[in-house]
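The protein record filed here.
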Amino acid sequence: MIYEMMHFLDVIQWQCQSKKIKWLEFMETSMWKKLLVVFIGALLGTYGSVSAAPISEVPPKERCPVCGMFVAKYKPWLAQLAMEDGTTKFFDGVKDMMAYYFEPEKYGGSSTPVEVYVTDYYSLKLIDGKKALYVSGSDVLGPMGHELIPFTTKDAATTFKKDHKGKMVMKFDEITLEMINTLRSGSGHKMHMMKKKK
């Protein structure tokens, strides 16, 4: 912010010197107004887009846009996408969230996901989904069957994989639509009882 302000003042000073006018005279010109608009626009572009914080309390009637289930009933599996248009989409698991992430238009969406939040399996806290690690193929089932189980740390993910017969630990950008479609079809998309967490 300080750097941008100093640069802006330098530009004004240069304009004054090049046109051989004083500051007050320059501020009455159309060039001043144009520079001010450009500066404010640059600031809004740099500082105006604030990351949306995750929402821990889901409205009780909120349904997953992918499977239609009431999300609030499955808080330990809560996943959410903050959309470009300012709305938030809630899901009862990472699997359905990723299905929407890859193909929002298929589920009635018209905006692009900008932030991703998932619930860490052990801490039950919402974490940055793009920084999380995921275990696939474990014996722990979510509300919609087989799930990608999210973790904050590699140690936690590795321990879980070992304890629960997981197949793979992966990063967010290693998850593919093909993988999600396989998970969703493999579960038969039937309701499953959640296993108790330790």
User: Anything to note?
Assistant: Residues 2-19 form the longest helix (18 residues). The chain has two domains: 2-47, 71-186. The helical segments are 2-19, 23-26, 30-47, 94-102, 154-163, 177-186.
